[in-house]
C-alpha cells in the first residue's frame, strides 16, 4: 500500500511524485514511457530546442548587420536533430535520477484505475493500491475531419519534432500557440510556410495587439497567413498534399495539424469511480484538485477549465499533494499564470486581457511602451514590440502583455504585480537597470502610474 499512486509521468505526474518527498510519503509512479511526458519527450523541451536552433540560424544570417561577416549559414539537419535528442535525453536522465533519489518507485506500463484506490498496470500483471491516487494522464494532439494523421504527409507536432529532413513547403492548420511556434521555427530554417486560422486572428483569445504584432513580424520573414479561412478535406498524393478552401487550393509537401489538444481520459478506468467528466475533462475541486471520488485527484491537461500548460500541471500537483499530506487547501492562483508563445519575437501574457476585463465588468486603463526606444533592444537589433499594462481604474494591475525580445522572461515581473495585486504606483517605484530590456516594463509602469519618463 502506497500513500500515493500517480498515473502519468508528465509534468503533473512527476511533480506530484517529487513533491510528496517533502512530506515523507511513499509514492509509485506509473508511466507508459520514459518519465517526462509530452512536455519533455515531444512537446515543450524539444520544440524550444528547435526554436533556439532557428534563432541561431537567424542570428548568423543577419550577422553582417553587426559587422560580423559569416556568409549564408547552412543547416546540418542531422546534427540539429541530434542536438534536440541530446537535450531531451539529458533532462530525462536527470529527472529519472531525481525520482530515484526521492525514493519514487517508477513502474513502466499503462496504468488503469480499477476502483478509486487501485491501479492495474497493464502488461505487468500487477495491481497497485494507494491511499490516494493522482491521475495525470496528459493530452493528445487533436485533428479535424479530412485530415487523418498518417505521420508522413499529415502530421502533428509529435511527428514534426522528429522530421528526418527539413520540409520545403508546409501548411499549418491552426494559428494558435503551437502553430505559430512551428511557423516561426520553419520559416527561419528556410521552409515555405502557410498558416490557416479559422478565427479572426492568430493566437485566438490572446491580446489582439500582440497577435497583430506577431503576425506582422512573421509575415515580414515570409510566413503566409490565411486568416478567417476554413479548410476543406485534404487531397493526399504520393508526395504532396493539396489543401483546398473555397475556390482556392495550395499544394505542399506536408500538412501540420495544430488545432489543440484533447484530454487522455478514455480507457483509464474513470468509470470505476465516482469521478465526473466534462467534455472529456475531469471535474475537480480547484481548491484541492480532488475529484468527486474522495481520495482520487486529477492534475494537468486532463483537468476541466484550467490551462493546458506544463507549469500549471506543476502547480496543480503541488496543490493536490499538499491537500493529501496536510488536509489543507493550497489552491493555484490561476489569475497570475504566465502564458508564453516562444516565437520570434516572443509573446507573453498574464492575468486579464482587455476583452476579459470588459466581460467581467472591470473598467481598466491601458498603458503601452514600445521597444523601439529601448537602448538594449536597439543594441541587439530586436526593437520591435511593446509592453502593455492593464490596470483596474484607480486600482491594481490585473493583466499585462509583452511582445518582443525575451518576453517570456520579462513577463514574470508583471506576474508578481498581478499576483500581488500591486497598484501601478507601487510597481513603478522600483528601478530597472540601464540599459536593459526590462526598461520597457519599467517605462510602462511609470506611465501607468501617471508619470512616464520618456
Structure overview:
There is one protein chain. With 454 residues, the protein is α/β, with parallel strands linked by helices. The chain has helices spanning 11-19, 37-42, 44-61, 77-101, 157-160, 177-189, 208-220, 310-326, 354-359, 375-380, 407-419, 424-428, 439-448; strands at residues 2-7, 27-31, 104-108, 110-113, 118-122, 126-135, 139-141, 154-155, 169-173, 192-197, 224-227, 235-236, 241-245, 248-252, 254-257, 261-263, 277-278, 281-282, 296-298, 339-341, 346-351, 364-370, 386-392, 397-404. Strands 1, 2, 3, 4, 5, 6 and 19 form a seven-stranded mixed sheet that branches. A hairpin with a 4-residue loop joins β23 and β24 (397-404). The radius of gyration is 23 Å and the shape is globular. The mean pLDDT is 97.
Gap between N and C termini, in Å? 64 Å
CATH top level label of the largest domain = Alpha Beta
Question: What CATH architecture label of the largest domain applies?
Answer: 3-Layer(bba) Sandwich
**Overall structural domain count:** 3
Percent in helix: 25-40%
List the total number of helices.
13
How does the SSE layout of this entry go?
Layout: E1 2-7, H1 11-19, E2 27-31, H2 37-42, H3 44-61, H4 77-101, E3 104-108, E4 110-113, E5 118-122, E6 126-135, E7 139-141, E8 154-155, H5 157-160, E9 169-173, H6 177-189, E10 192-197, H7 208-220, E11 224-227, E12 235-236, E13 241-245, E14 248-252, E15 254-257, E16 261-263, E17 277-278, E18 281-282, E19 296-298, H8 310-326, E20 339-341, E21 346-351, H9 354-359, E22 364-370, H10 375-380, E23 386-392, E24 397-404, H11 407-419, H12 424-428, H13 439-448
Parallel strand pairs: 1-2, 1-6, 2-3, 6-19, 8-15, 9-10, 9-15, 10-11
Antiparallel strand pairs: 4-5, 5-6, 7-16, 12-13, 13-14, 17-18, 20-21, 21-24, 22-23, 23-24
Amino acid at each position: 500500500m502506497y500513500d500515493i499512486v500517480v498515473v502519468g509521468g508528465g509534468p503533473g505526474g512527476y511533480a506530484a511524485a517529487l513533491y510528496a518527498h517533502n512530506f515523507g510519503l511513499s509514492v509509485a509512479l506509473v508511466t507508459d514511457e520514459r518519465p517526462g511526458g509530452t512536455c519533455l519527450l515531444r512537446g515543450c523541451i524539444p520544440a524550444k530546442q528547435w526554436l533556439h536552433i532557428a534563432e541561431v540560424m537567424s542570428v548568423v544570417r543577419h550577422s553582417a548587420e553587426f559587422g560580423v561577416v559569416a556568409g549564408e549559414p547552412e543547416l546540418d539537419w542531422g546534427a540539429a536533430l541530434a542536438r534536440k535528442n541530446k537535450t531531451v535525453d539529458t533532462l530525462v536522465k536527470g529527472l529519472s535520477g531525481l525520482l530515484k533519489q526521492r525514493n519514487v518507485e517508477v513502474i513502466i506500463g499503462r496504468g488503469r484505475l480499477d476502483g478509486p484506490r487501485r491501479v492495474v498496470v497493464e502488461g505487468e500483471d500487477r495491481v497497485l493500491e494507494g491511499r490516494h491516487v493522482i491521475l495525470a494522464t496528459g493530452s493528445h494532439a487533436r485533428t479535424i475531419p479530412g485530415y487523418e494523421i498518417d505521420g508522413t504527409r499529415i502530421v502533428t507536432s509529435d511527428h514534426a519534432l522528429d522530421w528526418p529532413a527539413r520540409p520545403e513547403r508546409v501548411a499549418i492548420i491552426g494559428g494558435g500557440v503551437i502553430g505559430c511556434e512551428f511557423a516561426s521555427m520553419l520559416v527561419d530554417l528556410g521552409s515555405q510556410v502557410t498558416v490557416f486560422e479559422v478565427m479572426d486572428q492568430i493566437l485566438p483569445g490572446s491580446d489582439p495587439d500582440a497577435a497583430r504584432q506577431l503576425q506582422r513580424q512573421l509575415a515580414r520573414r515570409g510566413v503566409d497567413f490565411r486568416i478567417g479561412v476554413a479548410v476543406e478535406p485534404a487531397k493526399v498524393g504520393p508526395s504532396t498534399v493539396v489543401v483546398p478552401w473555397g475556390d482556392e487550393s495550395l499544394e505542399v509537401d506536408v500538412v501540420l495539424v495544430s488545432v489543440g489538444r484533447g484530454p487522455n481520459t478514455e480507457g483509464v478506468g474513470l468509470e470505476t469511480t465516482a469521478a465526473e467528466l466534462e467534455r472529456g475533462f475531469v471535474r475537480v475541486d480547484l481548491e484541492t484538485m480532488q475529484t468527486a471520488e474522495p481520495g482520487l485527484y486529477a492534475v494537468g491537461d486532463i483537468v476541466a477549465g484550467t490551462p493546458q500548460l506544463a507549469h500549471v500541471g506543476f502547480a496543480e500537483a503541488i496543490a493536490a499533494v499538499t491537500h493529501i499530506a496536510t488536509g489543507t487547501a493550497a489552491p493555484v492562483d490561476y489569475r497570475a499564470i504566465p502564458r508564453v508563445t516562444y516565437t520570434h519575437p516572443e509573446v507573453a501574457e498574464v492575468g486579464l486581457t482587455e476583452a476579459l476585463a470588459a466581460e467581467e465588468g472591470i473598467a481598466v486603463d491601458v498603458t503601452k511602451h514600445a521597444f523601439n526606444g529601448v537602448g538594449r533592444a536597439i543594441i541587439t537589433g530586436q526593437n520591435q514590440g511593446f509592453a502593455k499594462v492593464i490596470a483596474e481604474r484607480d486600482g491594481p494591475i490585473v493583466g499585462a502583455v509583452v511582445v518582443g525580445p525575451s518576453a517570456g522572461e520579462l513577463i514574470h515581473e508583471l506576474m508578481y504585480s498581478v499576483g500581488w495585486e500591486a497598484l501601478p504606483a507601487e510597481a513603478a517605484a522600483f528601478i530597472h537597470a540601464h540599459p536593459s530590456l526590462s526598461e520597457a516594463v519599467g517605462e510602462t509602469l511609470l506611465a501607468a502610474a501617471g508619470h512616464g519618463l520618456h
